[in-house]
Amino acid sequence: MNDYPYSDLRENFAILVMKSKFELAQMSVEEKKVQRFQDAEDECYGFINEYPESKERKTAEEYIKKCKQYTKRLKNNRLIKYRQLEWITRSQKHRQTR
């Protein structure tokens, strides 16, 4: 896309990049999922800004919705795991001081 910025296929390439980033996020290891879903969401917004009349706009909007859901869920899960670990650590310290 950088070599041929005015190509007739530019929109098709943008669609492939958008879909690829979303699929990469879905298939990523847990540690990388949040960042990759955020990257995919950014790519979708960029696609919509660049091609607001595209037939793939609905796909981009659906990906954005899913990215937000995944990111929220993953962040909540990490917070829960952190709190559980914190509770376990406090419990162990409490037992040791007895």
Quick overview of this protein structure:
With 98 residues, the protein is mainly α.
Please supply descriptive tags for the structure shown above.
98 residues, mainly alpha, 0% strand, elongated, single chain
How do the strands and helices of this protein lay out in sequence?
Layout: H1 10-27, H2 30-50, H3 57-97
Helix pairs in contact: 1-2, 2-3
What would you note in describing this structure?
- By secondary structure, the protein is mainly alpha-helical.
- Helix content is 82%, strand content 0%.
- The radius of gyration is 20 Å and the shape is elongated.
- The model has no long low-confidence stretch (mean pLDDT 87).
- What is the distance, rounded to the nearest whole angstrom, between the alpha carbons of the first and last residues? 66 Å
The rounded Rg comes to 20 Å
Average pLDDT number:
87
H and E order = HHH
Number of helices in the DSSP assignment: 3
> What kind of sheet is the major sheet?
none
